[in-house]
Design goal:
six-stranded mixed β-sheet, alpha+beta
């Protein structure tokens, strides 16, 4: 359903300059030449028409972030859980070995990129699709998504809910970490519930930039939204009303295995532990409006 901009609550109060800056990161891939403007709000209103995707409480928002973990290039007693490079030879859209099969058969031996301190943190880095590793020499290693094994994504949080560990509203990443700390002998069994497995590649990025999203460009904290590209074209501006986060204009610049369907959105919150806490707290219903190019 087409709307008028003046009917969007909060539209006139947003930081349109920040939204325009994020939009311009991928505007050329969206078919528009990036351009400076003295009036970004007017630019959005001239170029686009707002169309309701999911009305009040029809959208479902979560958050994601770039973890920061201590790690080492060589395995040790402290650092014994690897993140892996893509081994190659995996056909697109063709299922490869599952997480359980990879673990049981040590099928990725020799493809280790870095070692971290815990199995659950290595797993959560895969879920997020990017990670910053703080090496012991003070350097930072950036890793980004480099494909997966073609297996379906299944939530380990949902599995713990099904086991009665905690209700849905309390099943946060921190609660999952607590369970893993209390049940070390069952962590791999829990992780194997999710057959999907993500591979990484080394990134050469300045510390100030976010990790690359699905469009191959850096994502912007608080302005990049992961969406289902079958519903929302990548590069599109998207207005969201997300209780607990706010109302603002985002840009659809990323995707995710669990981000499927109309109204599904995953908000990029930035890097590090604080961003992780913010991301883990977002799991709510709201409203989503796409800005479509005017004919």
């Amino acid at each position: 359903m087409a709307l008028a901009f003046y009917n969007i609550p909060g539209w006139d109060r947003d930081d349109h300059a920040a939204a325009w800056a994020a939009f311009c990161v991928t505007a050329d891939l969206f078919g528009l030449a990036p351009a400076e403007t003295d009036n970004p709000r007017a630019a959005f209103e001239t170029l686009f028409e707002p169309v309701e995707i999911a009305g009040e409480n029809g959208a479902h928002f979560t958050g994601y972030y770039e973890p920061e973990l201590a790690g080492a290039r060589v395995k040790s007693k402290r650092f014994s859980y690897p993140l892996y490079a893509n081994p190659g030879g995996i056909e697109p859209d063709q299922p490869w070995f599952s997480r359980a099969e990879i673990s049981a058969g040590n099928l990725l031996t020799g493809h280790e990129l870095v070692w971290v301190e815990s199995a659950i943190e290595a797993f959560l880095a895969q879920v997020q699709g990017s990670v910053r590793i703080r090496l012991e020499n003070g350097q930072t290693l950036r890793l980004g998504y480099d494909g997966k094994n073609g297996q379906p994504y299944r939530s380990i949080g949902a599995q713990l809910v099904a086991q009665g560990v905690a209700p849905v509203a309390q099943m946060t990443p921190e609660r999952i970490r607590e369970w893993c700390a209390a049940n070390p002998d069952h962590v791999q069994e829990l992780l194997n519930h999710n057959p999907s497995f993500v591979f990484f590649r080394k990134l050469d990025l300045p510390d100030a930039l976010g990790p690359p999203g699905a469009m191959g460009r850096p994502v912007t904290p608080g302005r990049t939204l992961a969406v289902d590209p079958a519903i929302i074209p990548l590069g599109s501006p998207v207005w969201i009303d997300c209780p607990g986060f706010g109302v603002r204009l985002m840009v659809a610049q990323d995707i995710g295995s669990a981000i499927k369907g109309a109204g599904r959105g995953d908000i990029f919150l930035g890097s590090g532990a604080d961003a992780g806490r913010l991301a883990g707290a977002i799991n709510t219903k709201g409203r989503m409006i796409i800005l479509q190019r005017r004919a």
